[in-house]
Sequence to fold (64 residues):
Amino acid sequence: MNVNSVKLQGNISEISRPGLYSDHQERVTVCVQGAEPLYAELRLPNQQGWTVGQKVMVTIVPSD
Fold:
């Protein structure tokens, strides 16, 4: 793991319907603990089958 990385805990707060997006994929909303309120949510395709309330770890790593 990169020494310049940051790990933040989060949880799945919402699952949106697949029909809301042009690719027809269900999205999950991840609420990231420790992030500023305006930036605390990420919306990602739910390819892993996550469920509401599930705890997750968000890792931020600098790219080359």
Summary: The mean pLDDT is 90.
